[in-house]
Amino acid sequence: MSCPYSINPNQSASISNHRDVEESIHTDFKDDMSYGDYLNLEKVLSAQHPLSDQHDEMLFIVIHQASELWIKLAGHELTEAISNIKNGDFGHAFKVISRVKQILGQLTQSWGILSTLTPVDYLKFRDTLGHSSGFQSYGYRKIEFLLGNKNAQLLKVHENDPSVHQELNTILNQPSLYDEALLALKSHGLPVDDSVIHRDFSQPYQHNDSVLQAWLTVYQNAEHYFHLYELAEKLVDIEDSFQQWRFKHMYTVQRIIGNKIGTGGSSGVSFLKKALDISFFPELFELRTQL
Ligand code: HEM
């Protein structure tokens, strides 16, 4: 008896290895909007301009541009999540926060592609970058601010671009995702200090005991506070994914430039390592020790 999974040799010979374009498929885009028109591909795909003649510079440009697009989407979704929580719409907030987690996962995956760039290959075009650096990424700064890592010093590099500077300044001064979560704790009747509720949102968030106690109450009475409990775990997911991106960035940078200073002027890897100590949602991690 022949194997039921084997292809009959006569049948294999009859496969044409060709797909006909069906009659109904639209092929005339003289007056119709095409795929490329809708996505503005002419602009997007003609925006890669290597400054050197090095083969690997294209990878460097594409990985940054693709990351910027995913970061842009993450910012769009986080803005929505903040507004959903503000309006008490936890269902939609969970949906978009789950999406942000996947986007961050996608961004983290891309370090694998970049680590095929060797130190020698990178040094061949590094000088052409001048002082440009991801440190000046306003999309990235926007998502850090939206999540709650507020730092007014970081606006300085955007002073030469008034519209970007204004947008970041506005986000800096608005409640972050975590601030909205803490307002939600309060609106669910949990005692949170007024100094937290009415804090200056442009300042870095500092640990607060009343917040820790409120989250502990939520975790110890998860059935009663199920939405808040689920929200907290979704925030932990986001921080987990974000830290993986930060770590892989730092580690890939170490692999490529060692302890050289950054093109943006920082100490490089040691500066990036310090970011790993910044938590968006500190009490959500502290409570795990207390449970
Ligand atoms: C060869 C590849 C890369 C190297 C050597 C590198 C190096 C660095 C260094 C040294 C810094 C610190 C600031 C400075 O002095 O420049 C930095 C910051 C940063 N880079 Fe990269 N990077 C690389 C790829 C990327 C990619 C693909 C992205 C994706 C968007 C990115 C995004 C960022 C961001 C957002 C910061 C600011 C981080 C913070 O404020 O904590 N980098 N990078």
Automatic annotation (TrEMBL):
UniProt-recorded Gene Ontology molecular function terms: heme binding; L-tryptophan 2,3-dioxygenase activity; metal ion binding
Keywords, alphabetical: Dioxygenase, Heme, Iron, Metal-binding, Oxidoreductase, Tryptophan catabolism
Residues annotated to bind heme: H249
Chemical reaction(s) catalysed: L-tryptophan + O2 = N-formyl-L-kynurenine
GO biological process, one term: L-tryptophan catabolic process to kynurenine
Cofactor section: heme
InterPro entries to which the protein is assigned, alphabetical: Trp/Indoleamine_2_3_dOase-like, Trp_2-3-dOase_bac, Trp_2_3_dOase
Pathway noted in the entry: Amino-acid degradation; L-tryptophan degradation via kynurenine pathway; L-kynurenine from L-tryptophan: step 1/2
The record's free-text note on cofactor binding: Binds 1 heme group per subunit.
Pfam family, one: Trp_dioxygenase
Residues bound to substrate: F60, I61, V62, I63, H64, Y122, R126, T263
Main enzyme class: oxidoreductase
EC number: 1.13.11.11
Segments forming a coiled coil: none
Subunit structure: Homotetramer.
General function of this protein: Heme-dependent dioxygenase that catalyzes the oxidative cleavage of the L-tryptophan (L-Trp) pyrrole ring and converts L-tryptophan to N-formyl-L-kynurenine. Catalyzes the oxidative cleavage of the indole moiety.
Record-stated family: Belongs to the tryptophan 2,3-dioxygenase family.
Protein name per its UniProtKB record: Tryptophan 2,3-dioxygenase
Source species: Pseudoalteromonas aurantia
